[in-house]
Amino acid sequence: MKKSYLLLIAFIFTIYTSKAQDTASKAIADLQATTQAIVTLNKNLQTPGFIKFPMLSPYRLEGNTIKAKVNSFLNTYKSIYTITDVDASLKDAEISTDVYGLQHFVLKQYYKGVPVFDAELKFHFNKNEDLNSINGNIISNININHIPSINKNNAGNIALRLLKSQNLNKSGAALKIISNELYLFPKGLAQGYVTTKHLAYRIEIRNDLDVREFLFIDGHSGKLIEQFTGIAHALNRILYEVNTDNKRYSEGGSTFFLSQWQKNEIETAGHVYYFFKNAFGVISYDNNDAQMVTINNNPDIDCPNATWNGVSANYCDGTASDDVVAHEWGHAYNQYTANLIYSYESGALNESFSDIWGETIDLLNNYQDDGEDDSVRTGSTVTNRWQMGEDATAFGGAIRDMWDPTIFGHPSNVTGSDYWCETGDNGGVHMNSGIPNHAYALIVDGGSFNGQTITGLGFTKAAHIFWRAQSQYLTQTSRFSAFADAIEASTNDLIGIALEGLSTTETAAGTSGQSITTSDYDQVVKALIAVELRTENNCTFATILSANEEICGASASNPIFQEDWESGVSEGWIITQLPENTEKWEAREWVLRSNLPKEREGIALYAPNPANGLEDGGNCDTQNGIIRLESRSISIPDYTDGIFELAFTHNIASEPAYDGGNIKYSLDAGTTWAIIPGDAFTVNAYNTVLTADNDNNNPMVEEEVFSGVDENSVSSIWGQSVINLSSLGLVANSSIKLRWEFGSDGCNGNDGWYIDDIVIYNCSQTLSINDIDFLNKNINIYPNPSQGIFNIEMKNISDFHYEIFDISGKSITNKIDVTLNSFEINLSNYSKGIYFLKLQSNEEVITKKLIIK
Fold first, then answer.
1. Which residue of 52, 215, 404, 657 sits 20 to 30 Å from the alpha carbon of 682, by its own alpha carbon?
2. How far apart are alpha carbons 73 and 61 in whole angstroms?
3. Would you please indicate which residues are annotated as catalytic (active-site) residues?
């Protein structure tokens, strides 16, 4: 009864999800038709990531207040985000007015009282309080047990233990938990593909020197789900030398006795402070006049280096050039605005904004510029303009070039050959930052690139646009496409507004006399197109199963055994559940599925890998066990030539390294069993071994398996595995039994394992194409499927005999000679299922499937 109930719950949830997505699609279409809005769909989440209303026709909403206007919009269009209860799902309203006098309204997403990580909606209004745009992340289709199985303290201890084992704490300073908050965490959001959703504690651990890490610990299993670093590498001021016991400068003191590098750190921190204060009204990096702490020659940053660790900016002699100093403080300003994580494209944006502010301040502050050529670059000319770290002697000169990133092997556009696709460098944060860097340089100075000719806007306009995007639009996991939307929206917002001038001194520049025009907007759009921020990259990611060539013709024309599930599970298959904890095991077994991944047609057999911890799901720690699919004994014919092979098509999407499936075999009618080893596969072998880490209690731990999902994807592609059965000792006139087993640990999952088109064959027994075509054209079987009576009509064929085999390959009739061109086969006394009619002459053989329904 429990099994049926759980299957019903899963079925209802699937139907609900599909219906909700259909409703959302219709609502989006209605919004577009009504308002002419441009909707950018977040492909990862299947919800709108950005909605931009027409420049000349912003959306006028009902209501006397900003809050009332937002409520009016959500009451009408909540279904575009698959939201049913606005009050329960969206909370913590924040209303702010920016330096331009424009208002913003931000709502955070919650699931049953638990905040959803980086899930929020941002509403942006013009000076008339009409809606210009909406952006953010909304995580849909959540069905997670929101009550944690482990408490906050235990999760914190797990995180500390894990971090200590990673050997990141080179300084040896005491690690401390700074924050520990429970979230609904969508794993993969940063990488651009949500694979699973977890109840997780987000735990920040640091030592205020060389460690600052964010660990996400599953609230049910205690596993590490994700980890991001919080240390970005490369006015109330204070300077220490080596450590905080050796103060060399505090605000108002003299810089006379400081070294040049120490002086750079103090002076440039002041330039940063006044730049943001004068232009954007932001008072220090937290907008609350926080003290700007610097440590020079910090031994814990592996000099030569420069970092922001969440508390202090840290440099070494030889690294503290003014652009590098401003770069690190840029990370501090990011922490208190968009708070972009330091990973993948979000991390590249994090790095890019620091480069942008670092180089902008360097080119405006008239500090330490002796001998530099900062002239505007055209074409391939190289000057010091747009070079990062050109005065940092410890780096040997510049380390990045924003005008031409390819000089240092960094990409200048998304489809460029230098685009970083690997996981190293935190997903390419220092590499792929070249793309938004290049966009900024083009917007400031103009230029021609990738078929676009851009007229530059200058620093004042560009800086205001980029700061607005960072401070008002971007979220922690924003990627390049969202960044492009944010830059366009920010440009549109600022059209016609008088912009403050840029100054790095205590004296503000005052109103610049500049404002953004519609022509400027067009130039910005061209720059974004040039660097291809909305274009898919050319990365090719690893798949668990590869596409392979078709196997030999004998698999289709003369199979020894085959199963495709199209008529159900045939008699002889044994399906078994083997839980480790029978009392708390959530019943599940191999079942038929027609709604297959990647829109594959037909029916497959499916081993579910549920995300244990779902509502009504039971105890998360006790779901370890195996579900087994076992064949009957399959007879092998008297084929003395060639090798016997097994092929099957499948698709795997499981919790990586913890849940997975493999195949076992028996050559003695089931008395003894062994795993088919990976080296017996000739195509698409197992991709991993189930880990023993974190006390994995999967009963198949340390076995070779298929496990996980394709890289950079929420699912996996289908593939065909081929196994050399002869290498296992299978010979003519023997038999074999097979087991497909899927093992799960105590908690969490993904989708499952799909098996289809199983066939055993011997390539030495292949019919020629001509034979197959001739026989197929001259044999007609009807009705098929039938109740057991099959009519056979044959043309131009004589001297044949036939034999009938069941699904296991066992003959159920003697050889019967064919003397007539039309005859009847009566199998009405046999059970439902698939049988095989094998017609054979001295020269020709063909096998036809018979289905009794």
1. 657
2. 7
3. 328, 430
